[in-house]
Amino acid sequence: MTSTCQDSTASRQRKGRQNPQSPSHDVNAITKRTVKKGAVPRCTPNLSEIKKKGKMKKLSQPVEEDLVMGLQGLDLNPEVKVMIGTGLVFDEQLNDFHCLWDDSYPENPERLHAIKEQLIQEGLVDRCVCFPARVAEKEELMLVHSPEYIDLMETTQYMNEGELRILASTYDSVYLHPNSFICACLASGSVLRLVDAVLGAEIRNGMAIIRPPGHHAQRDLMGGYCMFNHVAVAARYAQRKHHIKRVLIVDWDVHHGQGTQFMFDQDPSVLYFSIHRYEQGRFWPHLQASNWSAIGCGQGQGYNINIPWNQVGMRDADYIAAFLHILLPVASEFQPQLVLVAAGFDALQGDPKGEMAATPAGFAQLTHLLMGMAGGKLILSLEGGYNLQSLARGVSASLHTLLGDPCPMLESPGAPCQSAQASVSCTLEALEPFWEVLVNTVDSTEEDNEAGDNWDERQEEGEGPLGATSLPVLTWPTLQHRTGLVYDQRMMSHCNLWDNHHPETPQRILRIMCHLEELGLAARCLHLPVRPATDAELLTCHSAQYVERLRATETMKSRELHREGANFDSIYICPSTFTCAQLATGAVCRLVEAVLSGEVLNGIALVRPPGHHAEHDAACGFCFFNSVAVAARHAQAIRGTALRILIVDWDIHHGNGTQHIFENDPSVLYMSLHRYDRGTFFPMGDEGSSKHVGLAEGMGFTVNVAWNGPRMGDADYLAAWHRLVLPIAYEHVSDCQVSDPVRQPVVGDSNDS
Question: Locations of Polar residues compositional bias (predicted)?
Fold first, then answer.
């Protein structure tokens, strides 16, 4: 495969990661650990062991240095102002131009009128921080455009209709109006105003609802309704004025933004990602440079990413797959400090130009996926979109998401089609030499033009978008409280009577709560009262005999408690253990009730003892009742149906209990990311291996990401998240997600390494 401007001598040189890497480890050199979880050897060390400890201390210094560097990158100062609010620029002056010689021209003032009506109808304008548009100065436009071109555009203010028509005919797909220049300057200035507000910590994110669009404009050429390239100007402006080093530009307009690509294709400080209709060059702008093989030139090789769609009818699943498999992994390695989106909505179902089948809910999901980058510094700049209803609803969905509203459920997104998979595979193969995160991700896929085309099948089944005239109406819950918090200090009474240094200490949840209060996070949550789990709730996952066995420990004496704890694996029991385990499980059930009733949108339960090791009839690994499993069954009981539930378990230890409880059940998708060490890490054995995928009807609904070694870092977890967790979760389309972060794997945890 060839790439535009590709230097054969440098094509295999991979770009270095942005962050320093930890030293490599031999995953085969794994020492056998004791069976007990968190157990500490108590033998007296001899001289050789003392020397060995000294040597290990020296070797651990890089670990401590990594920890210090990581903490320095976190802003944990409670005095720092939390950026809140979504900026919005919407100015009526931007409607002061239209095509003088063609009233049916698709780029017209009605586009913004439709958007305004939709946003007012949904009450979104009042929820935003509104900024007036400002005019971009010539010096700002010159960051990406030539002064001669700007001067020429300025003269259009004084031309008559005939002169404007003659000049417009020298460009591709444009019209000119005496007000085109000032409106284009206002459009660029609108995005710059949001850049100042976001990078100046006035707001968290923003959207510029502007026209004319901009992403087709080149250094000295108009094109595709565009005069000035707004996102390109904004990227350079952010770098020059705000000293931003790395900018990500995402272009999801159905047309390729060739203007933006040409401006940055030699620049490694700007990562440009475009996903667009191509059809082997038959779709506008009809350029080979719009294909996957155009990856940038010189120092910019690998920093230009094109995902060309070679058929119409692409759906949400296709767009989401491109984001998960290419954009998010590369962006996580690139580490942008600002994300700009050329936000065209002509890929929505019903658009006459795009002929695609994406939905407003799908664009809400895409917006949400971008919000985790660059510390949330995200700006959307309107580009295309020519079906007024689709355009208005697409803008509304993205703005809802920027404001923090939950993404609407996707209607059976399914898997990406074969043509989309082929396009993604070709792009991956072209980029693989330049990004470490993409190593070994390329599947052996046939060329795109040989891929099976299931578009005809969709049309025959009556599922094609071209015949559909209406989009589903989305509902957006608006609540006073978004996040619930469950915490009860009574759960601290569960303690180890024989070992004051046991890792599962009562202070764990207290320290977390104190930290949340210091950061001001606890005050922003709705505090929910804790209740104990009922016997009926516990019996959905545990046997009656086991529940009564634990209840009996409330009246046992110290020696009996010690003996009973020894009957289980890595367990201690005290007189208050049963009550605390009841409270912990009931707390998670209470949170589920609050979410399903609409009292809150999401929440966190600070509970102990933990639960994910607890089996149907046995305590295990500090766990007595499987709180997440019981909560999942409680959610299904509330709804009265086999509610589809996703359980994500990122505790460093495999949740053997949770897996066993649901391994036959296709209504619960259990996904665990854990240290495995080929079965030598607690809970030992092969239950946590990747080969265990469920049983009977639950086959495929157990997913184990088993780490065979220590020191797995952010890049490893993100890779698993992008390549496995999110793609499967999107296909599962769960009605409820439950995460089980019993103890996250962090640098410095002696039990997790």
Answer: 1-11
How many angstroms separate the CA atoms of 425 and 609, rounded?
A: 45
The closest alpha carbon to 388, from 362, 353, 432, belongs to 353
Q: Which residues contact 16 (CB under 8 A, 6 or more apart)?
A: none
Q: Which active-site residues does the annotation give? A: 216, 613
CATH 3.40.800.20 domain locations along the chain: 86-413, 483-739
At residue 550, the pLDDT reads 98
Coil, strand, or helix at residue 568? coil
pLDDT at 699: 96
**270-277/129-131 β-pairing:** unpaired
Contact 150, 142 (CB under 8 A): yes
Tokens 């059930």 correspond to what residue?
589
Joined tokens for residue 297: 């030139």
Q: Are 528 and 603 in contact (CB under 8 A)?
A: yes
CB 177 within 8 A of CB 220: no
pLDDT in tens, 452-509: 344 344 444 444 444 445 677 777 766 667 899 999 999 999 999 999 999 999 999 9
Structure tokens at 476: 């957006």
CATH of domain 86-413: 3.40.800.20
pLDDT in tens, 255-314: 999 999 999 999 999 999 999 999 999 999 999 999 999 999 999 999 999 999 999 999
User: Looking at residue 325, what is its pLDDT?
Assistant: 95
pLDDT tens digit sequence for 504-562:
999 999 999 999 999 999 999 999 999 999 999 999 999 999 999 999 999 999 999 99
Q: CA–CA separation, 45 vs 163, rounded Å?
A: 92
SS3 of 614-644: the string is: CECCECECCECCCHHHHHHHHHHHHHCCCCC
Q: Which residues pair with 306 in a beta bridge?
A: 274
Bridge partner residues of 172 (DSSP): 223
Check: CB of residue 677 under 8 Å from CB of residue 709: yes
Check: CB of residue 240 under 8 Å from CB of residue 143. Answer: yes
Check whether the bond before 741 is cis (ω within 30° of 0). no
Q: Which two tokens stand for residue 386?
A: 């020519």
CATH of the domain spanning 483-739: 3.40.800.20
3-state DSSP percent of the chain in helix, strand and coil, to 5: 40, 10, 50
Query: Rounded to two decimals, what is the model's pTM?
Result: 0.85
pLDDT, tens only, 374-403: 999 999 999 999 999 999 999 999 999 999
